[in-house]
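A student in our group prepared the protein record below, which I am reviewing. Here is the record exactly as it was handed to me.
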Amino acid sequence: MSTDAKVVGYCRACGKALDETTVRSAHGTIYCAEHVPAEPPSPYTTTAAPPPAPNAEVSPGLAFLLGMIPGVGAIYNGQYAKGLVHVVILGLMITILNSGATGGLEPVIGLMLSAFWFYMAFEAYHTARKRRMGHAVDEFSSLVPMRGGSRFPVAPVLLIALGVLFLLHNLDILELRRVMRYWPVALIVLGAYMLYTRVTGAAEANHERR
């Protein structure tokens, strides 16, 4: 501080004389620049969670083998809710096959059951690879791309739809054999959804680059 400067106060910590250019205020008290306390963080500010670190202990091969056991592959990857959904879906398919209410569609449902069984293993392998490389993995990640405007709850909607169909069949309100003639519609809807998420995801990526 120059000798011509007007003293406006003294530092509470060290007693140094302060002018208008060197005075600092904190908590209603003046300090010098060296002793001014840091402002406490606001309770309303949030800090972003650090990105997940690569985990070399995760084994994609082990995840694939455990994925052959219903729900266990997902549990190995820390996705407990998804593991429960896998068990429910497989249990529902097995129950349908044993109930005799398929109307001669046992081969189709059997193929769906086998395909879903291997899907669990490949999905567990894919998720474990992402975890090993340090990529973010959410609770219901899947091999189907989920990027886009909003995440569609595929598994819950599928369970509800199947439950409604078989309930109506058991109540003799709806003949399941006739409904199952239109099962290719499900493939069309799934393909359209995957195309939509791929297009919207690419559009968002291009927008972020700009």
